[in-house]
Amino acid sequence: MPFKDFGYRLFNALYELIFKANVDRETLQFFTGTSYVAIGTLFGALLTFVFTALAARILGPTNFGNLALVTTVSTILAITMGIGGTAALKYGSGTPDDSARSRIVSTYTLQMILLTVGSIATYVLFSAQLSTVFGISREVYLFAIAYAAIGTFFFFTINSLRILFRIRTIALLNALQSVIVLAAFLIFVSTNTKSWQAAVFSLYIGNAAIAVIVVVHLRHYIKLQFDRQWAKKLMTYSQYALPGAIATSFMGIDRILINKFIATAAVGMYNAYYLPSVTVAITLWGIVNAAFFPYASKSKDKLSIFRNVNKAVPYLMAALVPSIIVIELIIFMLYGRSYLFSVELGLLFAFAAVACFLYLCHSNLMASEGTSGAKINTVSSIIALAVIIGLNVLLLPLFGISGAAFALTIGYLAATLYLMSRHRVLGGSKKNTEEANART
Predict the structure, then answer these.
(1) Is residue 163 assigned to a domain?
(2) Which among 103, 173, 275, 386 is least buried, having the fewest CB atoms inside 10 angstroms?
(3) Residues spanned by the domain of 132
(4) How far is C-alpha 33 from the chain's CA centre?
(5) What is the band of 349 on the pLDDT scale with cuts at 50, 70, 90?
(6) 440 in a structural domain
(7) Whether the Cβ atoms of residue 24 and residue 161 lie closer than 8 Å to each other
(8) In this predicted model, which residue has the larger pLDDT, 124 or 46?
């Protein structure tokens, strides 16, 4: 039996077991698109974990902590650069008109360039004050600004491919990015440049190279044209989604709080657990979401997707928690003697990974609904952020990294429960809601 046919048969069997129904045409298309991304992303993830393990082993907890602070602060700084990105993905995926997609991509391109240039100028001008607020050195802060700009450019190009449903291309580029990052870091190491700066430069090179390749690939879609109607629509959606995006980006503030309450080395230890657990969950979700969000945006029965997601939760937990523990054990063996594995922390981060995956699933489904979903997503993100900050302030001085992991889990669960409580918005109309309530 060919491997492809075996994969379809296995997926069909699992689908019938979980959802008690046969696979329909749209679901099969979703699975096909996801499987292409999975191949590239899993290969890329393997190389990324090699890069991570090498970086942790070579740099040690303190310098590995600096690397984590660069990526964390860059996520916060990138908020103002990427305004409108989710809106472009939502409306671009939802329109069947190829010319409209081109106008959306082109309009968002110009917006992104202006916002990025303005943000960089502002961040550099106030670098002394902002680096003090984040509690990091000015060097780490400036590296974070550069990484935010390059990351914004990278995610813009990947989202443009998602708008155009170039799923196979995304799969290939996911793998290529990891190859470039690992190769660049190995070159630095071979020249005895073993520093957190070398690791950050490797990430710069990987993201920038892929972004340039995609821009060349999509040069016919990315034009210097500005559509005011689409610009207004993108900004209207973004004004509801922005507070939520800010809250989501600040969820990495736990590393900043650990740096303030404990030490940079503790940030490195936290990151050592976070990467083979929560990052794995985010990577898996990235595989699914490459096809999930465009699929959900086009779907007229989002409540059905919501019910199917909830049916899959027990199976997800049963598969993900032990898998995360195994991955953690393997990665910690690669980290070296500077990183001692704790079963308690391993379990806490495994549960945090599951909570993160559930939150991302419900959050993206809600975002696919439009402005009404964006408003609810904003509240959920604020809830998660408030819980994470509050519990970290309370628990970090008492329990250290264990308190941070517990806070992360509770924060994601609180936000997910709120999203689930507002699921009726996914009906799209009073009629759909009534029909859904009658079925449930």
Answers:
(1) yes
(2) 386
(3) 3-435
(4) 18
(5) very high
(6) no
(7) no
(8) 124
